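To illustrate the input format used throughout this study, we show a single complete record. The first block contains the structure-token representation of the backbone; no residue identities are included at this stage. The design step must infer an amino acid for every position from geometry alone.
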């Protein structure tokens, strides 16, 4: 639930409708005034319908059921005042409303559980993918070079020659130095120190600089003028999510896009915080679709495993992640986070 006027109006109208319904029941029990009970019940039904339109699907169903209950109370008072039994037939309408509300509520709960399962699966896939990547890095780099160190030293020890021992020690020192550098890179990728100590912008600056030095492409970070004033609104956990989204987009650009230039942008205004990653690579092929404008064939790319993890992180930030790509013209990843939005807790 975000902080929009519609979201704020929902609980207020819901409370007003429930209060009117409670007051109608109280008057019915204590004072037996059918006319006032009917008026209050009808008023509660109208307010609850408005509240249902302003709420989520699950609450909408229960509010519709409360509206049906209010209508049943109103019809019963109408029957009492007119002493006309035929009006009892009107109770069929609110009963049908309650039945429909119950069905809608059950469907909404099922959809919410299904969505939660899909998100949990995407998160699990992303974590498993990360574990495989770390295992591959440790096996192909660290383990292999440690084995090489063992072979070099064992061979020199068997020969027993001082010159061979000196050469072996020099080779071993070189291999160990390489591994210290590699392990430092791995540790920074797992949890960048700059993110904890300096914040998001310096951490992304480090990411861009390291990417440029390692892969030989032009990587640049641009920070908007308002970022220094508004960027601190992101909690450390939210900054970590944003960093991982940018890191995944940068890794995709390096590994798959064959890009020569990469631009990361941080910006914010009074309404939202925006993060964007653009590259000038080959872009991604997309499924044929009916374009809105044939002169501009840009389209939203279907999600893969990495993109699913990025969207999951964007969801936890209550944000909206879009990925656009045009073959031959690069890829654009954009994250929009409404300001003052309540972050979603991570499901366990």
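Output of the design step:
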């Amino acid at each position: 639930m975000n902080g929009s006027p519609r979201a704020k109006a929902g609980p207020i109208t819901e409370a007003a409708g429930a209060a009117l319904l409670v007051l109608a029941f109280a008057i019915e029990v204590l004072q037996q005034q059918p006319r006032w009970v009917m008026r209050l019940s009808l008023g509660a039904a109208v307010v609850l319908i408005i509240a249902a339109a302003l709420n989520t699907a699950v609450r909408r169903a229960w509010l519709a059921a409360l509206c049906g209950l209010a209508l049943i109370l109103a019809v019963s008072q109408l029957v009492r005042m007119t002493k006309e039994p035929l009006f009892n037939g009107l109770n069929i309408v609110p009963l049908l409303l309650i039945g429909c509300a119950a069905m809608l509520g059950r469907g909404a709960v099922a959809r919410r559980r299904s969505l939660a399962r899909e998100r949990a699966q995407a998160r699990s896939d992303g974590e498993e993918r990360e574990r495989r990547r770390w295992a591959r890095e440790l096996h192909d780099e660290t383990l292999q070079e440690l084995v090489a160190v063992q072979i070099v030293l064992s061979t020199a020890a068997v020969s027993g020659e001082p010159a061979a021992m000196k050469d072996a020690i020099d080779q071993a020192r070189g291999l160990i130095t390489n591994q210290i550098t590699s392990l430092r890179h791995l540790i920074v990728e797992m949890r960048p120190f700059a993110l904890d100590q300096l914040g998001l912008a310096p951490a992304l600056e480090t990411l861009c600089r390291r990417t440029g030095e390692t892969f030989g492409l032009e990587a640049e970070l641009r920070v908007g003028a308002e970022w220094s004033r508004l960027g601190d609104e992101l909690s450390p956990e939210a900054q970590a999510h944003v960093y991982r989204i940018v890191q995944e987009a940068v890794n995709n650009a390096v590994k798959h896009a064959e890009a020569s230039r990469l631009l990361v942008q941080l910006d914010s205004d009074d309404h939202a915080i925006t993060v964007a990653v653009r590259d000038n690579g080959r872009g991604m092929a997309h499924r044929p679709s009916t374009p809105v404008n044939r002169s501009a064939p840009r389209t939203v790319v279907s999600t893969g495993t990495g993109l699913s993890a990025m969207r999951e992180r964007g969801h936890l930030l209550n944000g909206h992640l879009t990925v656009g790509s045009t073959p031959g013209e690069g890829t654009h990843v954009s994250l929009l986070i409404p300001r003052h939005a309540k972050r979603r807790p991570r499901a366990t």
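Structural context for interpreting the output: Residues 245 and 345 are 18 Å apart (CA to CA). The radius of gyration is 31 Å.
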